[in-house]
UniProtKB/TrEMBL annotation:
Any one GO CC term of the record: plant-type vacuole membrane
Annotated keywords: Calcium, Ion channel, Ion transport, Membrane, Transmembrane, Transmembrane helix, Transport
Name under which the protein is recorded: Potassium channel domain-containing protein
Predominant location: membrane
Source organism (scientific name): Crotalaria pallida
Membrane topology qualifier: Multi-pass membrane protein
Location within or outside the cell: Membrane
Length: 376
């Protein structure tokens, strides 16, 4: 009976998370509104929202108490759109990434500047060629217009290309992802120009179609970079249109055949920024395409699971506490397992964590339990 009570309590504890997932999945708040009242932990939050609306000043000037309460609601409610935006901003800081890139390029430029006499090929300015060689190496473009010509230069290039691949893959791609996410609101505003959407509506729209908007932004950015690169090579590097487009494609895909490349001073200055942007953008484009495809499959699977008729064996499997009655929480947990969102191992691990926190073995968690666990 004690284990049965704990299982039932734990199932209720999953209710809020499950309702959050279904609300996001179906693009509406119906599941959340219908299930949240059954969760005891959210009653105070809902009451605070109601009290906030009742106490709001009529003249549009919010009191300090209301502002603090509203901030508390935003922080404590992970489903709140402003909380989602705040979390996204807190997860990533652009300045450290920029400084890391500058330090990496600076160190590489210094090394290849000092060994410039050991690099052969088409040369313009010694310092610019060093930066250009760094970018071409770290992005694995490798035109072949500048190549190492000594053992020391070759070893430096080997070290630099491996560290550069790691930097692009782990850091710069994250920076590109962050920039794209920051522009999602602008894209949603542009698409929904006819309708006046507030912050809450915009945030919900972005969250419900995140993969789609990220893919659209990456595709538009990549197309713009392709056009800019082709135009620059055509007018500045004096390549014909086909060769310019061919060089752009060979660059962004990091083929780098080397028969066409940036050979002028202004061209290599442009290439330092354009090569970094275009190669990373293409990588993000394919990453978002894969994410969009995976999201589509998940939604299709969720629809199949939700519309499938339940059998007696399903009811037996969903009955976590063995009382022959399927509660909303048990139904949600079972469906989440069927969708592959959680596993039995996950549930067992969470149950074990719950038991460790439940110091008085009452099947519920209180402040006394938490204080005891912190002191022990």
């Amino acid at each position: 009976m004690e284990n049965s009570g704990r299982s039932s309590t734990f199932s209720g504890g999953l209710l809020t998370y499950a309702a959050s997932y279904f609300s996001k999945l179906m693009g509406s708040d119906e599941a959340l509104q219908s299930l949240l009242p059954e969760s005891r932990g959210d009653h105070s939050l809902l009451n605070e929202k109601t009290d906030l609306q009742r106490r709001r000043p009529r003249r549009g000037c919010a009191s300090e108490t209301d502002i603090n309460l509203q901030q508390k609601i935003i922080v404590e409610n992970p489903l709140h759109p402003q909380s989602i935006l705040a979390k996204s901003e807190a997860e990533f800081h652009f300045k450290p990434v920029f400084l890391c890139l500058v330090a990496y390029l600076g160190a590489g430029t210094l090394c290849f500047f000092l060994t410039s006499h050991q690099i052969k090929g088409i040369k313009t300015n010694r310092f610019l060629d060093a930066i250009y060689f760094c970018v071409v190496t770290m992005t694995t473009v490798g035109y072949g217009d500048l190549v190492p010509d000594s053992s020391l230069a070759k070893l430096l290039a080997c070290i630099y290309v491996f560290t550069g691949m790691a930097l692009v893959g782990l850091i710069l791609s994250k920076a590109a992802d962050y920039i794209v996410e920051k522009q999602e609101i602008l894209l949603v505003r542009a698409i929904n120009k006819g309708g006046k959407l507030g912050l809450v509506e915009l945030s919900k729209e972005v969250e419900n179609h995140k993969a789609q908007y990220k893919f659209m932004l990456a595709a538009a950015t990549f197309l713009a970079l392709m056009i800019i690169g082709t135009t620059f090579l055509y007018f500045v590097e004096n390549l014909d249109f086909v060769d310019a487009f061919y060089c752009v494609c060979a660059t962004v895909t990091t083929l780098g055949y080397g028969d066409e490349s940036f050979s002028t001073t202004i061209g290599r200055t442009f290439a330092v920024f354009w090569i970094l942007s275009s190669t990373i953008c293409l990588a993000q484009f394919f990453a978002y395409l894969a994410e969009l495809y995976a999201e589509g499959r998940q939604k299709l699977l969720a629809k199949m699971v939700l519309t499938r008729k339940l059998s007696a064996s399903d009811l037996e499997a969903a009955d976590l506490d063995g009382d022959k009655i399927i509660s909303a929480a048990e139904f949600i947990v079972y469906k989440l397992k069927e969708m592959g969102r959680i596993s039995q191992e996950d549930i067992s691990d969470m149950m074990e964590s719950f038991r460790k926190l439940d110091q008085d073995k009452s099947g519920t968690l209180t402040e006394a339990d938490l204080q005891y666990s912190e002191s022990s």
